[in-house]
């Protein structure tokens, strides 16, 4: 883990808000079961679910409404999909759990570190993997269960460039790209600081190797990691920071530009090519990675009055039928039997092996270091 001067203060603040989260979550990661209750088969699960009350499902995407409708029609059960931001989900789950008044029976959340630190240790939610799915989902996505991985990828304007104009992460620190790279402000989105920490923890050797491949010499730095050295140089090169993916998609892909931005954008925004006539192109060979992923967890409220219906919904999400609406946005299922459709706009599935994959085993470190990485960005960012 990268060390910063503010780390002790950050940990103190985290501990004050959640006094038992750190120790409990560490124990949790080692002991999360692959099932929270005995499973007697899908048919028995369906029969048990039909005896229970309707369920609500929280998700940060509006596609959950369509998914819940499909589930209801398939099984003759009532499920209501509710679009709720990740931050609001956290607040609602904690409040409902403490009050013993669960409204969200199934929680699909993209803030994995927060779930590991705030929700699971306190027993607000739990993870369940359908036994018959266990051999289809890689172990790294089972504790806790991730339904899908979502990608942010480096993109360019295909109307101006016949191929990706950047070949290496370190190239973005060069003067020729000063002020020309669009990037979500890490102060507004925790998944970005999680990415920094994940790179430092699991990909630092690759970042250092990319430096040598680009500059022809070994990296020499006073920073704690190659990742920190890259981030410092990148932040100082005046990237265009925004509060979301929409302005980045436009800055990169809007047609008719002479000097469009290069940038990092959600794979879901490639649908703008169809909807808005944008010219977004996916960089397929950028080193060391063409992008990075974060996970969407599928969790069940421990105090739900409909545990079997909730488990059945989790099972449904792990099937081609259940996850199909989200795959159109480039969300990659963790069930390895399911492939993205051929008409998925970004074609991110073709470069899945070149994405930096999220590793939940160090999710607590991501949580603890968020403020540190934000401070580091603030100190080094130049407009």
From TrEMBL:
Residues spanning the signal sequence: 1-37
Protein's UniProt keywords contain Magnesium: no
Gene3D superfamilies attached to this UniProt entry: Periplasmic binding protein-like II
Keyword field contains Iron: no
Location of region: Disordered: 325-346
Keywords, comma-separated and alphabetical: Signal
Full protein name: ABC-type Fe3+ transport system, periplasmic component
Native species: Microvirga lotononidis
